[in-house]
TrEMBL record:
This is Ribose-5-phosphate isomerase A. Catalyzes the reversible conversion of ribose-5-phosphate to ribulose 5-phosphate. CDD domains: RPI_A. HAMAP family: Rib_5P_isom_A. One of its GO terms (cellular component) is cytosol. The active site is at 111 (proton acceptor). PANTHER family: RIBOSE-5-PHOSPHATE ISOMERASE. Pfam families: Rib_5-P_isom_A. It catalyses: aldehydo-D-ribose 5-phosphate = D-ribulose 5-phosphate. Keywords: Isomerase. Homodimer.
Amino acid sequence: MATTDRTQQDAQKLSAARAAVKFVKDGDVVGLGTGSTTTFAIKELGKRVKEGLQIKAAASSIRTQELAESLGIEILDLGRLSQLDISIDGADEFTDSLDLIKGGGGALFREKIIASLSKNAIIIADASKKVKKLGAFTVPVEVIPLAYQYVFDQMHKLGGKGILRTVAGQTFITDNGNLIIDADFGLIDDPAKLSADLNQINGLLAHGLFINITSKVIMSDGEDIIIFE
Ligand code: 5RP
């Protein structure tokens, strides 16, 4: 991507993040996603906390936890929470019916828990993330290592061409000690059906299709903030 495109995309991410952070109020317990777009939101929240906003948060990844704590945001144990007032996260793709692909950063399992716990699950995005149909971005799937081949083969039967995720030549390991398979299902006609089929596979911890879980998507196109809900 050219530098100008990247700068414009970052400006859109920042605008969407600023719009989302306005929904956070004193006393909220806030779920924090992972990724470059969410990083803008965490930094904006950090500024508001320095100005006196009283919040606590739960983090979807170790890197989000470290960033939030460095900005003075108190992090609670996600595993002990029954509900979050609000959550802010990014996405790799979204449609106007609020179906998402997430997990480009490999944090999909904890992100799904956070979205499920959230009364107001907000996704923030630049305009490049909006698609008519999901599937140009591969579907990340978190797999327990001893079930790797089984899950890989079962996904193949569903039409998914999988690749084990590596980073700089090394197998990518999630914060939960698991593997990621990035699966290409082509453009997905029925994301809810595929999500349900994937949920049936033993050993598959979580997949990156987020269906009926998002309250709103806040997108910036560089000029306007557009809210899909
Ligand atoms: C991480 C995610 C991210 O939200 C998604 O990959 C988008 O990342 P970015 O904001 O960097 O484009 O799901 O697991």
